[in-house]
Amino acid sequence: MQTLQRLRRSIFLPLLRLRSAASSPGNPAASSLSLLRSFTASAPPPPRWCLPAPDPPAGRLSRFPNGCRNMASTRGTKGNKKLAKPADNGEGDHVRRASVPDGDNKHAAILLCGEGPPGELSDDEEFARLEAAAYRDYDCNYPAEDVDPMHIFPYSTHRDGSIYRGEYSWKKDYRVAERNETWIEAMMLSDPKDCMFDNGTCIMHRPRPMLQIFSVKLAKIPMDADSVELYGYIATRDVLDPLLNYIVNVSRNDPILIKQGSLIEMTGPKRGIELCDTTLIEYDMRMKTGKQEKDDLQLIDGASIVDDRSTDTKCLFTKRIHGDCGAVDITVSRLDVAVEATIEVHVSEVRSTFNLCVGCFTSGLNQEIQLFDGAIGESRGLRRSVVAAVIDTWMDLKFKVGSGPYSNRDAEHCYSFKAINHGWTSQLIKTEFASILVKVTWSTLSMSNM
């Protein structure tokens, strides 16, 4: 009962405040950032998702074997038009539930929110409707699991077009009706000409609070499926530029074949993600089942937020996004006083086909970010990767090179790069298969629109 009361206070009351503020132009509380913060302000202090500290406290330990660590010297695609297009299929708005089988042969009821029932409802009536739905579905929506659910905004689904309707301030301020990709590039302040220095440190272009996404995993799919063809997108919208910054972006014409429990390859972000107050995560991912898109199954659909109040810096946490026909786990961390690292890898002098796996560790966190995993048969450049790193900490890159996916002769080459405000660092790696040149470019986030 206490859990449901907290749910009621932390989700539905702020939504009514959003609704009231959006309809009152003279109300100073209509600022989206203040309104979004009411999700946490109206409830008891939320739990902070942080890994437990070691006991006794320990210093930073190298994750690399002795002799492995080395000190280095000093394609995002456009959005899927069909997925992004606002839909208006004429269906009546309503709240409905769909049963989804889980691994324990139970059925989880997923609450699907449209724009509300026909007709105008008062705030009290809307609250009562949402409250009743929460009481009815809370226990079966989120059965006991080892991963906490991520709260999804009501009225944020793409398939029925509800995310494009309504006057909620978060929709306006994050410009969700605009489907263009962010115009801000990475490395925009890697070599600025207006620096001001204090004891050798630039004080004109300062580190910023940033959000780092470490992994996206397919947590659940329908029980009768061994693997699925997955497509769609996951993107962020931040205060720096509310346009889409894709983390995952897969076309329906070229879906990825993936099994439950596998990582979904991250093709982004295009540039660093700012976490100033709140950052919106928007998603619409589907499973291809037939020739026509209308027959495809919806994996996840909606929008959620990550804020700087309910998270601790340099602490990993994982949230589960539940959907109609499965779930996705997303692991992230807030990194204060952080800068943007752009990692570029070029492979040359290829002597024979080999497998290459590139991983990244940032800011002292013991969680690998997978940057690349595949076969190399000719000279080529890999897709550019953008990672956040806390200033003056070490970012570690691990290159695993082998003759095949099951080879026991894999060699690891590990290099560390210190996070700085501006500039670039490079390292040449010689292997028996090829030469690998890695370049890391450092930049603070652009403030050109602030």
TrEMBL record:
Species: Urochloa decumbens
Protein's UniProt name: DUF6598 domain-containing protein
Source organism, top-level taxon: Eukaryota
Alphabetized InterPro entries for the sequence: DUF6598 (IPR046533)
UniProt-annotated stretches for the region Disordered: 61-101
Domain DUF6598: 210-440
UniProt-listed PANTHER family: DUF6598 DOMAIN-CONTAINING PROTEIN, OS07G0486400 PROTEIN
Taxonomy of the source species: Eukaryota, Viridiplantae, Streptophyta, Embryophyta, Tracheophyta
Signal peptide: none
